Amino acid sequence: MNRRQVLLGTLGLMLPATPVLADRREVRYNFTSSFGRALRNSGTLRYAGKKTVSYRTLEEPGTIIVSTRERALYFVLPGVNAVKYGVGVGRRGFSWKGAAHIQRKATWPSWYPPEEMRKRELEQYGRKLPKMMPGGPQNPLGARALYLFQGKKDTLYRIHGTNNPSSIGLAQSSGCIRLLNEEIVDLYNRVQIGAKVIVI
Q1: pTM of the prediction?
Q2: What's the CATH code of the domain at 103?
């Protein structure tokens, strides 16, 4: 096999067989491993990773602010700092803005594509989505998911991981906010149920 075939095989077919393996400390999720460095060196990967930045806001520490224009998610820290994560956002016609709160957090969540999405994917692209896909490394929701509600109503939008690291920085989703798997794990560990989420 040539280098490209090896790389694609590593990304697609050689992922851990179970979520338990992917949670072990020595297993990296998307691009901090050797195949990830190869992606970065080839110029395929646009994103260098999360960082702590100066960030002024009137919002309380623990708040999440998503800038769809910047393709960035800020987790507000005490003082004038925030952790800045690169994200993928909704494509044209599927993006949304507003305020919500985190009602639920899930580890290796199952995916239940909405009926509207299943119909759209079948009609436009000929892809038949399952009614439910169990959690795991191949699942589009990735390693963790934060469920966004407005009051008691589920917005159906999520902040979640991704099994497609090259989508970070792009507008490709159906409205959800994507992070690298290792970074959604970091955010998941920081954020509390009830935390405010602002999408601008």
Answers
A1: 0.74
A2: 2.40.440.10
